[in-house]
Amino acid sequence: MTGVLVTGGTGKTGSVVAKLLRDRGIPVRVATRNPVAGRSGTVRFDWADPATHPAALRGMDQVFLVPPINSVDPAPLVDPFLDEAQRLGVRRVVLLGSAITLPNAPGALELAARVRAQPGWVVLRAAGFMQNFLSPHPLGERIRQHGEIHTAAGDGRLGWIDARDIASVASVLLAGSAVEPGDQRDYLLTGPKALNYPDTAEIIAARTGRPVDVVHIGVDEQAARYRAAGMPAEFAAALAAVEEGIRAGREEQISTAVLDLTGRPPRAFTEFVQEHASEWMGRPR
């Protein structure tokens, strides 16, 4: 093994992937727009600047790929990177994808299809992140500041997963000494149980002693809230529209992939809340 390039290497998933791989003794290069001067193992990288791609990839034979955030069409930015990866002989690309399809936004599906054309591809189809319940995500910030969850998902359930469990799966797949043809596949990654927003509010309240109200709103109002939080309008609309699918039960999926690949069950939401309880106590209503 030559090494693993971790894009999104300072984010909630990529940073853990990098640590887990280093703990295994695997060389890691973290790609970031703002590398710290003098810190080894990092490289300047910008999806919008293909000139930064060759230096990031050179000497690496595997990639953990976190697409550009807040985009309904990441493929045009990622395509030049994948072309360069193939040219330089990268033998494995593990994509952090989503189990949830953004309505009227086929770009993520196109990107996954493009990754499947790479040697040694793997697509991780992750459910909603438990970390969304923490600041600075709009959901977590609303809970912290106002003790409220605003949702258009009704009582629909989602298999919320801790980002650290996604990272554990990715590190196992990237630590393999060989890439077999059978390794090329999609993995649905979820937590152990599907929960709706009232369920999550009840768990947070029980563990923190602070009431959390669920306020049911429409999709248009949710999109407006996402825009107010700084999301691009097109992405905000697509993300809000996801909640219609959750309401209809289309996203209520549970898999055993985390256990199957890592040997340990995924963290339960109750465990996650217990660990982070103090982070919802920053400001009373």
Automatic annotation (TrEMBL):
PANTHER family assigned to the protein according to its UniProt record, in alphabetical order: PRESTALK A DIFFERENTIATION PROTEIN A, PTHR43162
Classification lineage: Bacteria, Bacillati, Actinomycetota, Actinomycetes, Mycobacteriales
Protein's recorded name: NAD(P)H-binding protein
Species whose genome carries this gene: Nocardia fusca
Pfam families recorded: NAD_binding_10
Domain (NAD(P)-binding): residue spans on this chain: 8-111
